[in-house]
Amino acid sequence: MADDIVTIETQAGITLAKVEAKQLNEDLTRKLEALVREAAAAEREAPLVMDLGAVEFMPSVSLGALVTISLDCKQNNQRFMLVGLQPTLREALSLTRLDKLFEIQDTVAAALEQVKLDAAG
Questions:
Q1: pLDDT of residue 1
Q2: Helix (H, G, I), strand (E, B) or coil at 99
Q3: Is residue 57 over pLDDT 80?
C-alpha cells in the first residue's frame, strides 16, 4: 500500500509504515492515522514499526495520533515501535514524556533485530 504520506509494506515479519511527509498538519495526520491503523489491523500478528525519519515537524495532533495508534496496538497485543526520530521530534517526545510510552529504536534494522531477539528469548 503506498500513498504520498506513508508507504506501508510487510517485510521480515513486521508491518513497516514509512512516513514520507516532511511536515504533518491536521489533515495529513488524520489520513496517516487512518492508513496506519488499517494496516495494523490487517496484520495483527506482525509488529508495527513506524519510520519517522523523514518527519521534520509534527504538531501536537500528530503526537495524539501516535498515542491512539499505540493504544490500538496494545489493545490487540500488537507490538508498536517508532524508528528514525529526528532530534526535534525525539525532544518533543521527551518533553511530553511520551518517550516512556513508545518503544523507540534508531533504525528499522535495529527494530528488526530487537524483534528477532525478543522472539528467540
A1: 42
A2: helix
A3: yes
